[in-house]
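Session log. Operator J.P. requested a structure for one protein chain; no other inputs attached. Running the standard single-chain path with C-alpha cell output.
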Amino acid sequence: MCCRRQKTEDGFTLVELLVAVAISAIIAVVLFSLLGGSISNWKKAEAHMNNSFHRGNLYILLSTKLESILQYDSKVEPGKYFSAEPDRILFLSYQSVLFHYFPVLTEIYVENGKLMMKETPFFWDRPNTELPEPREMELADHVKKLEMGYLMRAKVKRNDLGNWEDHYDPDTEKGKIMRDIRFEITWEEGDTMVVTHPLPQKENTRNAKRRF
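Structure written below.
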C-alpha cells in the first residue's frame, strides 16, 4: 500500500517546504554573519583611521613646537624655562595652542596614561616674575610611556656627531651644545611614534642669547 505525500495548494509537498525554509534560514544566518563581520571590520578600520589621523596631527604639533622652540633659560633660576628630563620636557615656544598670544612656557609629559601638554604665558618685560595660571590639554590617551632624547655635540668639534642623552644638565654639559630633541611615544597596544627635530643653531630674537 502506497502513501501519498501531502501537497500544498501550489503543488509543493510539506517536506519540500520544510527544506526550503531550512535553506532560507541557513542563508539568512550566513548573510547576517557576513554583514556583522563587515560592520565589525568597518568599525575597526574606522578606529584605525581615526587613530592615524589623530596621531598624524600629534606628530605635526610636536614638530611645530620643536621648530619654534626658544633656546632660553633663566640665569636667576636655572631650569625655570628649560628642563630636559627622561620622561618630560619644559621649554619656551613661539607656537601657542591654548592661548591667543605667545611665547608660552610649554611642558609635555605623561600622567595617568595620558600625554599632556601644559602652556603658561611668558612676558619678556618681566621674565623672572610669577607666571599666570597655566592651561592643560590632553594630546593622546592610552599612552604607556614617553622617552625623551637630547643630542649633545661638542661646540668646538665641527665633525662631532654627538651622543644621545636622556636628560640635560647645564652644569655637566658645559662645552657642549644641544642639536636635536627627540620624542618617542609608546602606546599601550605597542605602537610607537618618534618625532625628531633639530634645534635652530643661531641666536634667538629679542636679544635672548642661546643658553643650551
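Operator note: The beta strands are 69-70, 83-84, 88-93, 104-111, 114-121, 135-140, 143-154, 163-165, 176-187, 192-198.
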